[in-house]
Structures are given as structure tokens and as C-alpha cells.
Amino acid sequence: MSEIAILGAGIMGHGIALVFALGGHQVRLTDSRAETLEKAPGLMEAALETLREAGEADASWTAERLRDAIRCSASPAETVRGAEVVIEAITELPDAKRALFAEIDPLLGDDTILASNTSYLDVFPLIPARRQRQALIAHWYTPPYLVDLVDIVPGPETDPAFVERMRALIEGMGQVPIVLKKFISGYIANRIQSAITLEVFKLLDEGYATAREIDDAIIHGLALRIPILGHLAKADFTGIELVRNALANRTYDPPVPTGRSESVDRLVGEGRTGVMAGKGFFDWGGRSPADLFRDRDRRLLALKKALREIGPLTGE
Ligand SMILES: NC(=O)c1ccc[n+]([C@@H]2O[C@H](COP(=O)([O-])OP(=O)(O)OC[C@H]3O[C@@H](n4cnc5c(N)ncnc54)[C@H](O)[C@@H]3O)[C@@H](O)[C@H]2O)c1
């Protein structure tokens, strides 16, 4: 069992706290906004209930046990002092992160892993020089208690022993750590998702297909094979010569990023901002966001269970 400190209790922080608690660790959680810190236990309990229902957390995980495993404190010093791992999950603003790293620097032990959950920032220049050997990125996806992938990225001066400790810790909780050789903004999955985003908005904006048709193509075509094969094993099944010919023929012209999408701008202008507003690309039939999130999570859990039974088809 390790003592884990999590800074930031927002969308990611409370979810990461739940992952570590269920993984058998003692967690301390803080946030600079009192209201966010107050809401965190309720959100974690609701997520725990969904996990219990699906058999992903056993019945001994009561709300009371959770409150013992995750201590919330308004004090960053109380949260960080003596922790073996400190995870920064605050707002994605370089100045805020730099100030926080400077503030906690005197509180860190020389063996403490200092991890940032940043999505896109090269955080290493924001971290004090003497902490570079302890610093790394550990990037979870939302919701972290359902999505198992965690990207681990060392900085230019990170001691490999810290990377290995973080990798082992995450693997020990049943999640899937991937260690990148060096920092690239968006890591692997978010970069691929960004490429899909550009393509989807090109097809929509230029009138090739409707939102329904695009999602049907993704759900019934693209997505079906990905959980079993990934992309490169799928290429092995396609045949690498065909892959080479397709590259050489250059029939695919990737969209040029313009920094905006007409479809997205129109939806935002109409107040159709997604599930929280009841409408986005689709109309969600008056269902509450909480109901929709629960429905999504139940389906994801059922899919994970089925995929665990089926297993991926991969070579060495
Ligand atoms: N939302 C996602 O899908 C997602 C996924 C992966 C990674 N991330 C990354 O995780 C980090 C947090 O994102 P989020 O979506 O949880 O944001 P969020 O806005 O929901 O939460 C951030 C929290 O940090 C708090 N905060 C700000 N400064 C602080 C400080 N000095 N000390 C303590 N708390 C402070 C804020 O009050 C807020 O509650 C970002 O770096 C983001 O890029 C987000």
C-alpha cells in the first residue's frame, strides 16, 4: 500500500483517487476550490455504486470504507507531506501548474514520484530543476476508473527507476500503462483521436454524410475490429503489401486543420453543447446528464467484461 496525494479534485482528480483507493492505496485529495472538494466524495460514491453493480468492485466497498481510503483536505501541505506519489491533476494552465510545483517542492521527499496528468502540456520546463529526476507524466483517460490506459512519459532527466515504479504501481491496480520514450503532445491515443476529429468534421462540414451516418460507420465498421486487433495487427490481417500500395497510391488526402468547424460553431450557437444541455449532434430525449452518464458507464462496463472474456488477438 502506498500513500498517494492527488492535487485537483475535478473531473480527473476524483476519478484517479477512486482508482488508487480501489487499487488498495491510501489516498489524500485536495482542491483549491472548496465547492469542488465538497462534491468529490458524492461523485466517487456514485461511481463506486456503478462499479459495484457491475461486479467490478466487491460488496465490502461501502461508502464508509471509501471515505476512510480517500481523505479530503483543503491543505496542499497536509496532502503532499510524506506521500510516496504526488499526482498533479489541476487546471490545464502552465502558470497554475508552475506555481503549484514550486509550492510543493519543499514538501516532497527525494524518493517521491512527482506525476502530472496533463493532456497536452510539456510540463517538464515547469518543474523545479532539483525535482526533474523524480518527475514524469502519468496520463489517465476519462473516466479513469473505466478506461484502463495510462500513458507514462519521462522527461529529459527522469531517473528510469521512478518510471519503473510508476509503471509497476499502475499495472498492480489492473490498469494498462504504456511508457513512451519521450514527450509528444497528446501521446498516442489522443493524437489518433485528434486525426479522427479532423476527418469527421471535414465529412460533416463538406456535406458527405450526416452525424448519424458517420457514427454508424464508426460503430459498425471501424470500432468493431479495434478492441480485438488495434491498428497494426489489423494491418497484418489486411496484408502489408496492400498497406504499402495504399501508401504509394496516395489516394487519401488528409484534411488541412483550419482551427474550426462550421458544424461545431452552429451547434454551439444554438446552445446544443452536448449531453449537459440535453442536445448536441443528437437529441438526448430529455434524459438527465446523470442518467445518461450512468447508462454510458453500464454499457462500457458490459463491453469491458465481454472484451476480457474474448481477449485481444495479438502477435509478439
Ligand atoms: N477532462 C479530461 O477528459 C482529461 C483527461 C485526461 C487528462 N486531463 C488533464 O487533467 C488535468 C485536470 O483536468 P480536469 O478535466 O480534471 O479539470 P477540472 O477543471 O475538472 O479540475 C481541475 C481542478 O483543479 C483545481 N485547481 C486549480 N488550481 C489548483 C491548485 N493550485 N491546487 C489545487 N487545486 C487546484 C480546480 O479548482 C479544479 O477543481 C488537466 O491537466 C487536464 O489536461 C483531463
Notable characteristics:
12% strand, Rossmann fold, globular, binds nicotinamide-adenine-dinucleotide, 12 helices, alpha/beta
Short description:
The protein is of the alpha/beta class.
Explain the overall architecture.
The protein is an alpha/beta fold. It has two domains: 3-179, NAD(P)-binding Rossmann-like Domain (Rossmann fold, 3-Layer(aba) Sandwich), CATH 3.40.50; 189-310, Orthogonal Bundle (N-(1-d-carboxylethyl)-l-norvaline Dehydrogenase, domain 2), CATH 1.10.1040.10. 48% of the residues lie in helices and 12% in strands. Strand 7, helix 6 (160-172) and strand 8 (176-179) form a beta-alpha-beta unit. Helix 1 packs across helix 2. The site of nicotinamide-adenine-dinucleotide has 26 residues, from helix 1, helix 5 and strand 6.
